[in-house]
Automatic annotation (TrEMBL):
<protein>
    <submittedName>
        <fullName>Uncharacterized protein</fullName>
    </submittedName>
</protein>
Length: 123
């Protein structure tokens, strides 16, 4: 569907003013823009914003994304399956129900243990 350029500009302006998406949608509908265009634009905007949202962990953690069997690569959104604390080396499994997560976590633990073991000789 073609979306009215004025609608896109108005939505951008409202989002720049930091209105939440649901409030932007309500404002646009009250201003008389066509509902199907507003809904399509807001859905597309939410999808893009959700894809670009920064991960919910701090800079002291590393996130590992695992491609699980059966997942398609094309159009796939990155997810975090394992979080590793850079300072402590502690692992947090975000998808413990997946067997691949456990396999990767075990390999990461082995690698961390080897690295710590070799670092003892250099200090």
């Amino acid at each position: 569907m073609d979306i009215d350029y004025n609608l896109v500009q108005r939505a951008q302006m409202l989002l720049t003013l930091e209105h939440p998406l649901n409030q932007v949608q309500d404002i646009l509908l009250r201003e008389g823009y066509p509902q199907e265009q507003v809904v399509e634009l807001m859905d597309a905007t939410a999808e893009v914003l959700n894809y670009l949202v920064p991960p919910q962990y701090d800079e002291h953690k590393i996130g590992i994304d695992i491609l699980h069997p059966g997942e398609k690569v094309e159009g796939r959104k990155p997810t975090v399956d394992i979080l590793i604390d850079k300072r402590s080396g502690k692992l947090e499994l975000m998808t413990p129900h997946q067997p691949e997560t456990w396999r990767v976590a075990n390999e990461v633990r082995k690698a961390i243990k080897r690295q710590r073991h070799t670092m003892k000789y250099y200090h």
